[in-house]
């Protein structure tokens, strides 16, 4: 029996003892080993790709095809630009875009500024911050229908809480959802309360990443609260603020649940008719799926354009 020999390598150090009768193993099959080792990761990746394919990419392709098709008598034919012509000639089309733009502007004034201010206030608390975060995020955990019905009760002109508060201060009661002048603002208030929790937590996480030395330096320079927010907080959270602005623009332009449940969709004198609600009407009230797909395609192109402008501006700032 031969004694084992110790092999050494100046770079790697001593190796394990090897007997003279050992046969070196082949080094093939590296790809198969890597595939087996990463089988779980590949499985999750394939599942995600399939989900995106069936629930995101396929509906987008199908919508694009439907926008140029027409179905009559069970037969589908190509309609060219007729669906887009029908949509653009509809008087409700321009009203829906005006209402959607108004909702977006009001929602950004409230839904973009209020969560940031709440996050700034929460960031100043040193105790019970976890409880306060849960309290702010609680409306997001509620089912949207339950939240909307709660606000519908609060807006009731007869026994609603909002009119009770106005009456306590000697102010006249309001027809919150029945008045064309206040219906859209009422929808915005409900939507802001329902969705501000997620944005608040994102802003709060960004604020907690700001070095405290910057605030100390600002205090030494005599900066007050507002100057510290403007010169320290806003510049340090500029990237997350711009990203959240884009996401909120995209989300608000697709609003549907709040006006549909609060005002029946159209609202008084069509004051809460949005683009997505008009798509719903084309598809399920008028059975015109081609026009619905055409309007959806217009909305898709507009949102894609806004996203492209955001990406281009972001790259310009990075350079």
Q: In percent terms, what proportion of residues is strand?
A: 5-15%
Number of strands: 4
Q: Provide the residue-averaged pLDDT.
A: 83
Give the overall form. Answer: globular
**What is the CA-CA span between the terminal residues?**
70 Å
Biggest sheet architecture? 2 strands, antiparallel
In short:
The protein is mainly alpha-helical and 319 residues long.
Brief descriptors of the model:
319 residues, mainly alpha, 68% helix, two-stranded antiparallel ribbon
How is this fold's topology laid out?
Blueprint (H helix, E strand, L loop, with lengths): L4 E5 L3 E6 L11 H8 L1 H28 L2 E4 L2 E4 L3 H7 L2 H21 L1 H11 L5 H13 L2 H11 L6 H8 L14 H26 L3 H9 L4 H12 L1 H15 L4 H6 L12 H11 L3 H30 L1
Helix pairs in contact: 2-15, 3-15, 4-9, 4-12, 5-9, 6-9, 10-11, 14-15
Architecture overview:
This protein is mainly alpha-helical and 319 residues long. It contains 15 helices and four strands. It has a two-stranded antiparallel ribbon with strand order 1-2. The chain has a two-stranded antiparallel ribbon with strand order 3-4. Strand 1 (5-9) and strand 2 (13-18) form a beta hairpin. The longest helix has 30 residues, at 289-318. It is globular, with a radius of gyration of 29 Å. Mean pLDDT is 83; it is low at 5-12. InterPro entries: ABC_transporter_permease, MetI-like, MetI-like_sf. Residues 97-310 form the ABC transmembrane type-1 domain.
């Amino acid at each position: 029996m031969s004694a084992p020999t110790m092999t050494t390598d100046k770079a790697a150090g001593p190796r394990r003892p090897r007997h003279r009768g050992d046969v070196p193993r082949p080094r093939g099959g590296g790809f198969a080993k890597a595939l087996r080792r990463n089988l779980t990761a590949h499985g999750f990746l394939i599942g995600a790709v399939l989900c995106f394919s069936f629930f995101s990419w396929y509906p987008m392709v199908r919508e694009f095809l439907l926008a140029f098709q027409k179905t009559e008598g069970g037969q589908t034919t190509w309609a060219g630009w007729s669906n887009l012509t029908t949509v653009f000639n509809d008087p409700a089309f321009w009203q829906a875009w005006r209402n959607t733009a108004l909702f977006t502007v009001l929602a950004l004034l409230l839904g973009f500024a209020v969560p940031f201010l709440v996050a700034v206030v929460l960031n100043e608390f040193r105790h019970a911050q976890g409880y306060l975060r849960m309290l702010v995020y609680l409306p997001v955990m509620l089912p949207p229908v339950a939240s909307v019905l709660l606000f519908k009760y609060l807006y009731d002109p007869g026994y609603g809480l909002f009119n009770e508060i106005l009456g306590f201060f000697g102010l006249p009661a309001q027809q919150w959802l029945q008045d064309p002048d206040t219906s859209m603002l009422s929808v915005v208030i409900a939507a802001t309360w329902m969705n501000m929790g997620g944005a608040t937590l994102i802003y709060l996480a960004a604020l907690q990443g700001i070095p405290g030395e910057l605030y100390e330096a600002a205090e030494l320079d005599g900066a007050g609260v507002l100057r510290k927010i403007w010169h320290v907080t806003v510049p340090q959270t500029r990237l997350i603020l711009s990203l959240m602005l884009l996401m909120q623009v995209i989300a608000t332009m697709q609003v549907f649940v709040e006006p549909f449940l609060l005002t029946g969709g159209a609202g008084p004198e069509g004051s809460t008719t949005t683009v997505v609600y008009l798509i719903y009407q084309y598809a399920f009230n008028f059975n015109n799926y081609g026009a619905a797909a055409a309007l959806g395609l217009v909305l898709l192109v507009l949102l894609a354009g806004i996203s492209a402008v955001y990406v281009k501006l972001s790259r310009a700032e990075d350079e």
